Amino acid sequence: MPTDAALDPGLSAPAPPAPPARAGREVIYRHTVVVRITHWVNVLVISLLLMSGLQIFNAYPRLHWGLYGADADHAWLEVTALNPNADKPTGVVNLGGHKIVTTGVLGVSAGGDGAYTQRGFPKWATLPGDQDLATGRRWHFFLAWVFVVNGLIYLLFGLFNRHFRRDLAPTGEQLKPRSILGDIVDHIRLKRPVGEEAKRYNVLQKLTYLAVIFVILPLMVATGLTMSPGVDAAAPWLLDLFGGRPSARSIHFITANLIVLFVIVHVVEVFLAGMVNELRSMITGRYSIKTEVRP
Amino acid sequence: MTRLSRRGLIGAGALGAGGLMLAGCNRLSASTPFQNFIGGAEDLTFSSQRLLLAGQPLAREYPASDISPVFKSNGTHMPGGEAYKALLEGAFVDWRLVIEGLVRRPSQFSLAELKAMPARSQITRHDCVEGWSAIGGWTGVPLGHLLRTVGVAPAARYVVFQCADDLDNSLDGSGQYYESIDLFDAFHPQTIMAYALNGQALDPPHGAPLRLRVERQLGYKHAKYVMRIQLVDRVDNLKGGKGGYWEDRGYEWYAGI
């Protein structure tokens, strides 16, 4: 059914005029155009959201739990300098009672003139590079709108064309403990699937994508909104949900770290699975799979 | 081309593109038209929040047990100058709050007169733009009551607060703190001119003798050391033209997020 495939091209749908595959390989149409576009918008927007977020974090590089939190209150995480006015200040991270020296990266790093100064995250990690909270906020809230609109397009499309049901929902068989265990072993042994198995995501992949799409990223938006005093007045239940504005700020920071962790694993997996093939599939939509195990 | 070098090339390309993007973003940050472009999202935020707050809900109020042990003071801790020093030494007996501009009856009020007016007490959370929060109990006169007392002229759209502190220690007064809000926020029941924090008369670090509380917005809107309230139809002809001390230095006029 070439017409149906063109209208509803999913992970397993056959490719409309596919380029000839090499022997032992098959080219499938893996990613729809909406998935590809929203993916690359996310790459750009999430990178810049992270960096402008670190700029905002630097304005008050301490994190608290609870309803209030300022200088005099206990911080569970603090990025600071031991002797900020010394010639050679020492950067430290105080994390749950432990002091970790991080001079050069966290707490103390090179400023505009190259000399070590007190800063939460270093110049190269923040947007803009120099300490400028007002511009960091302007970037962050602009990007947040782009992120939300991009995400809504993806979600609506995913529901509408059954992308979630067809490609991301694990099958009952995939969810069996033996199958999950087998997948973990395959990951550890860096064994890649071939043939029919390669046409769908494995169960760890599916669960990770579902967690990112439906838990991590919405959590990012919700905790971000909870830091807004205006939104808090309109939706005070957000404060109850997260246990206060300082808690929401902490969860926002932790969740941002989880996104970074996901991206690292994601990019490593892309490398392991064949970077050119994977990148091509996210650009043109076409993905080449091995149809059989070579002897 | 070998597989490895192709990989290396793509990797190097990605790194290079990332570096260029960063340099580009930093350059864009310095460009006024681009700042205005991304600042356009602020209008969207403002409109969305006004929609959400159309019913004028109250900011959350907390029980006394949730009050911060120390309420952080930020910005000015003690205004400079002989005039403020003299007022402080006289326990603000000679201080007058001036209300002028687009009002029917320009007026002056002493601290005692303000304290004799209907008061509102509220334990609310103060959110600084930097990211910290503190909970404190404020007592003061609802700004709406003051505005009804003096009578707002139909042309008035904004309430401007002129303060005693010069945050830049400028000689020409360009660093004099000021703020502005619109009438939507001015008449909100929790918008008060506070003279007490946690049951005590305001001390200089927290804005003695009188400060604005405009719950639902960030800390820099809550002008301290208020000397004069002006009703105006526009704010773009004041000082830097952006409606406030921090606004003139790049921060947003609407500080609901």
Description of the molecule:
- Chain A has 295 residues and is of the alpha+beta class.
- Chain A has 9 helices and 8 strands.
- In chain A, the strands form 3 sheets. A 4-stranded antiparallel β-sheet of chain A has the order 2-3-4-5. Chain A has a two-stranded antiparallel ribbon with strand order 1-8. A two-stranded antiparallel sheet of chain A has the order 6-7.
- In chain A, helix 2 packs antiparallel against helix 3 and helix 6 packs across helix 9.
- The two termini of chain A are 34 Å apart.
- The longest helix of chain B has 27 residues, at 3-29.
- Chain B is α+β, with helices and mostly antiparallel strands and 257 residues long.
- Chain B has 2 domains: 3-45; 59-249, Oxidoreductase, molybdopterin-binding domain (Sulfite Oxidase, Chain A, domain 2, Alpha-Beta Complex).
- At the A-B interface, helix 2, helix 3, helix 7 and helix 9 of A face helix 1, helix 2 and strand 4 of B.
Helix and strand topology:
The complex is a heterodimer of chains A (295) and B (257).
Chain A: H1 2-7, E1 25-29, H2 33-59, E2 62-63, E3 77-81, E4 91-95, E5 98-101, E6 107-110, E7 116-119, H3 133-160, H4 163-168, H5 177-188, H6 203-226, H7 229-234, H8 237-242, H9 245-283, E8 286-290
Antiparallel strand pairs in A: 1-8, 2-3, 3-4, 4-5, 6-7
Helix pairs in contact in A: 2-3, 6-9
Chain B: H1 3-29, H2 32-52, H3 82-89, E1 96-101, E2 107-110, H4 111-115, E3 120-127, E4 133-142, H5 143-150, E5 158-166, E6 176-182, H6 183-186, E7 192-197, E8 200-201, E9 211-213, E10 226-232
Parallel strand pairs in B: 1-10
Antiparallel strand pairs in B: 1-2, 3-4, 4-7, 5-6, 5-10, 7-8, 7-9
